[in-house]
Design goal:
Radius of gyration of chain B: 13 Å
Order of helices and strands of chain A: EEEEEEEEEEEE
Oligomer: heterodimer
Helix content of chain A: under 10%
Structural class of chain A: mainly beta
Shape of chain B: globular
Order of helices and strands of chain B: EEEEEEEEEEE
Strand content of chain A: over 45%
Strand content of chain B: over 45%
Radius of gyration of chain A: 14 Å
Distance between the termini of chain B: 37 Å
């Protein structure tokens, strides 16, 4: 069965530190990949997405993610985090054909210390 | 441009009761998906509605049913509530473009079953 793994459940960083959140999926076919963010008290918002083309995807608020097909990974990065990046981050994947559902990881809670 | 809206915000029910949750999609969207997010977990796909029909269903029992109206809004019904149904129920809308879909999420309805 298709699944998504987010290895870091809780991450604590100081402001200006670099961030990398891991995401691995378990499907060998063609996929679409997403990162969603949930700020405290707010709903899930799309951070960035990959459908095809350049495997390095840039999103909002300085985030980027790199799709490495050989590693089934789609890690999220930001060179310098801010206190306002404190949130829960979810990786999601969907197959390009045969399904409409998104499979989500369990999320990573990021806390940025001012 | 209104985003995805859901009602009610919170709901408390007792075991065995039935509940109806409502969702209005983002303007221009015709597809609605429902997800269940248990505490500490990522969202899990319940089903998706397109053109007033259930297009795909996740691994949820028949107690979970839905409906989509001609104006694309949707309802999620859960019968014979169990304690384990306590969760945040998320509605997501998209344009029904299949593989190019990006789902946009509402704020959710927090259901507590006592």
């Amino acid at each position: 069965a298709q699944s998504v793994s987010q290895h870091n459940h809780h991450v604590i960083l100081s402001e200006a530190a670099s961030l990398e959140l891991g995401c691995n999926y378990s499907y060998g076919g063609t996929v679409n990949l997403f990162w969603y963010v949930q700020y405290p008290g707010q709903h899930l918002q799309l951070l960035l997405k990959y459908f095809s083309g350049d495997p390095l995807v840039k999103g909002i608020k300085g985030f980027e993610a790199e799709f490495i097909k050989s590693k089934f990974s789609f890690n999220l990065r930001k060179p310098s985090v801010q206190w306002s990046d404190t949130a829960e981050y979810f990786c999601a994947v969907t197959r390009v054909s045969g399904t409409y559902k998104y499979i989500f990881g369990t999320g990573t809670r990021l806390k940025v210390l001012a | 441009d209104a985003g995805v809206t859901q009602s009610p915000t919170h709901l408390i029910k007792t075991r065995g009761q039935q509940v109806t949750l409502r969702c209005s999609p983002k303007s221009g969207h015709d597809t609605v998906s429902w997800y269940q997010q248990a505490l500490g977990q990522g969202p899990q796909f319940i089903f998706q509605y397109y053109e007033e029909e259930e297009r795909q269903r996740g691994n949820f029992p028949d107690r979970f049913s839905g409906h989509q109206f001609p104006n694309y809004s949707s309802e999620l019904n859960v019968n014979a509530l169990l304690l384990g149904d306590s969760a945040l129920y998320l509605c997501a809308s998209s344009k029904g473009q299949g593989v190019l879909d990006t789902q946009y999420f509402g704020p959710g309805t927090r259901l507590t079953v006592l």
